[in-house]
Amino acid sequence: MSYEYSKNVLNSDPERKYGWKKDTHHWIVECINCGCSYVPDIIKGLSLDINEKKISSSEFENHLSSFYKNDLLNNLHDVNYNKSILDNLLNILKKKQNVKILDYGSGNAELSIFNSIPSIDSITSYDPLYPHNINEIFKKLNINSEAYNDLSKMKKNEKFDLIICQSVIEHVTYPDQEIKNMKKILSTEGIIYINNPYMPIKDDLNKLLKAKTITKKNRLSCYHIDHINYMTPSTFTKLIKNNDLKVLNFWQKFYSSGREQKLFELFKINLNSFIHYLVDAIGYYYKKQHFFLTHK
Fold first, then answer.
1. What is the CATH superfamily name and number for domain 3-295?
2. Overall pTM surpassing 0.85 (yes/no)
């Protein structure tokens, strides 16, 4: 992944966004033991678990303020999509009242807007990149969530009924450790939701090498500097089994496609979800992107 490739093919700005120089690059390699593809040397501006490179307080406050004033309102289909995922989780959770939720790798803390749902007791936001005064920033911007940038600072023996790890696991250096962290603070009958893009790099390699330009709508746009783990369903399910977790299988129903508010898009995503449900039932995780996990 070179500077030129990122700028000219992925239409990114690696110098401004990541501090890359024209001779900066990183490699994507394959583990000979498990077959997982990943970036061994992270040469980029920010990584989820590199604490010494936290965003400055003022920069993050300005970013959040802009997000809640502009981006969130302009992307209501994303809000509806997140609500669909939350509804799916609440529907399969045996506990129906006083549900405690942890948004793991929460970024903009978008889930906090659902804190008023009657069955939810609290939504906690965790992101190691948050600045030290994150709770002051949340309070100032009326974000209804308690925030942490360090799991060890949480209340002793804190347990969560739902842990939502959305668009995170592909950004972290050690996904196995992150799953261990989540399992420790998951309640006995709780559920972990993890999604990650489908990135079978060996299958896509020729397309990536031949690409002249890749737009956000193109599936190949998943291959960019921010992503440092390229896990297929088979490698990810190995991590799940190694941590004594199991996959819950059910048909997820969505009220928004997360992309466009079109009936065809909504029909397509629900049809794909139903197909996943059928093939998951026989243990074949075909292009699986959404995993609902619980204790064995």
1. Vaccinia Virus protein VP39 (3.40.50.150)
2. yes
